[in-house]
Amino acid sequence: MFFYFKENNNVMKKRNMTVTVIIIIAALVLLFMIDNLTRPCLRPGELPERYIHEHTSPQYDPESYANRRQRLNEALGDGVLIISAAARKDFYYITGFDERQGVAVLAPGDVKPFRMFVTPENPADAIWIGERYGTQEAMGKFKADTAWSLENFETILPKMINGTPFIFVHTLDQQIKKLVSKVVEEKGMEVQIKDADSIIHESRVIKDKWEIDQLQQAVDVTCKAHLWIMQTMAPGQKEYEVQAEIEYIFRKNGLSPGFLPIVGSGPNATILHHIRNDRIINDNELLLVDIGAASSGGYTADITRTYPVNRRFTPEQREIYDLVYKASEAGIKKMKPGMKMLDCNHEANRILLEGLHEIGLIPDTTVWWQKRFYIQHRVNHYIGLDVHDTGDYGYDPEKRDEHILTPEIRGRELKPGMVMTMEPGIYLQENRLDYLHELFGHLAGPEELDSFAEKIRPVYEKYAGIGVRIEDNVLITETGNNILSENLPKSSDEIEAAMKRRKW
Ligand code: GLY
Ligand code: MN
Ligand code: MN
Q: CB of 290 closer than 6 A to ligand 1?
């Protein structure tokens, strides 16, 4: 009896368990089905609405271009500027003319202060490349006061420069320079040939309303690409597959990449300009994505986020991420009129160094090279027609060792209309400690370097391979700043929440 009961009890228990398991499986299947059914179905090639950007800014605004020529004319004084398409973005900035050949002449003292020389319309070419703008559009669309065929340039050149004390020629315009020098010599002209680059670059620093609209459009589409990959990335993908998803969103919105996308997984996240993008992305790694769409008018965004591939940061990844986030937030507060160019850099670095010291990665914060070991780049650069846009910073950006950790070097004043990045980062490359002698042998003796390595190695190894950069685009305004990329998830909590579940 006793044995029979025990046996019966066991059978009951087994049965109950089986029923429970079946109910749980059925509930999960039901949940899965409901979840799938409630998601809108996408046809191939169709994008969910939240990834489509409504274009608001026209590709070309004659007023913006006329204003910038006016600004340049003021800087030219009695001089004449001659610039060709060989000067690339600087030529485009002045004219908006996007054919491969063309010359513009700005002569403020002339009755026709803006002349263009362009390839004429040509039915033989039209079959290969389509219609050219020709002289009619050079005057109609691009507002030249007069336009000639390019072949007339050499003949008209002496007249255009006659009597001017200065001729400004771009350093990329070697052919123009040769022609000008020949005429000057032949005619025995008393004239100085000057580089045009710096006056054009200075003019590009302050963006007008249309340019800011262009940048906002580029930023918005870039943010959509970030949101898209937050939802679509998965372990096992190749970096270039993520790049393809990014470019898919850019192209679906009518834009193109403003620079080569950086998609760095795992150890590649510690390479500042990793563009090979051919590694397999593994679970538990970080994925650093530094991308920018270029607007239809050519203005490029530059936005970085660093993602946990499996949608949750490990404690170590989160610790480094949160430190970079804190540096970014503090740096952005220093981006306003009254501050100078490098103030935000010094503030962001101060936060990073403080945090790295607390973690145990910098034993002595008074030793310059111990800090330089972690701080690789400044945190801001102009954006515009070039991703690293032209313009003076008030210091030499190439001489990093000079300014990067020197708060006394502050650079030029920030002005409303400047648009720039804020992009602090920490890159803890594996094996980097093995290169201390090569990196800093000129600043410290071998024993000092070895003792530093020995002291921090156990902590360094805990974080080795982690690379984090967070990059936003910031417009300086009269009263402070406007973060153009503000709506993109940024803090570690926001990123995890945004990656949690498909949102279309
Ligand atoms: N994408 C290059 C940079 O962040 O400067
Ligand atoms: Mn970038
Ligand atoms: Mn950048």
A: yes
Rg, the chain, Cα only: 29
228 Cα to the center of ligand 2, angstroms: 18
pLDDT in tens, 180-213: 999 999 999 999 999 999 999 999 999 999 999 9
Domain with CATH 3.90.230.10 in the chain: 206-500
Ranges in the chain annotated CATH 3.40.350.10:
62-204
Q: How far is the CA of 84 from the centre of ligand 2 (A)?
A: 29
Task: Indicate which residue's Cα is closest to atom 3 of ligand 1.
Answer: 302
Rounded to 5°, angle at Cα 287 from 284 and 293: 160
423 lines ligand 1 (CB under 6 A): yes
- Residues contacting 351, CB < 8 A, separation 6+: 323, 326, 327, 330, 331, 424
> Is 302 touching ligand 1 by the criterion CB < 6 Å?
yes
Cβ atoms < 10 Å from Cβ of 66: 12
pLDDT at 461 over 70: yes
Q: Is the CB of 90 under 6 A from ligand 1?
A: no
Question: Could you tell me how far CA 451 lies from the centroid of its own chain?
Answer: 38
> What protein residues have CB closer than 5 angstroms to ion ligand 2?
290, 302, 471
**Tens of pLDDT along 268-325?**
999 999 999 999 999 999 999 999 999 999 999 999 999 999 999 999 999 999 999 9
Pocket test for ligand 1, best of 222, 422, 471 (most atoms within 8 A of CB): 471
206-500 topology per CATH: Creatine Amidinohydrolase (3.90.230)
- Confirm or reject: Cβ of 389 under 6 Å from ligand 1: no
User: What are the strands, taking DSSP E only, across 245-366?
Assistant: 256-257, 262-265, 286-291, 293-294, 303-308
460 C-alpha to ligand 1 centroid (Å): 26
Global confidence as pTM:
0.92
**Domain made up of 62-204: CATH architecture:** 3-Layer(aba) Sandwich (3.40)
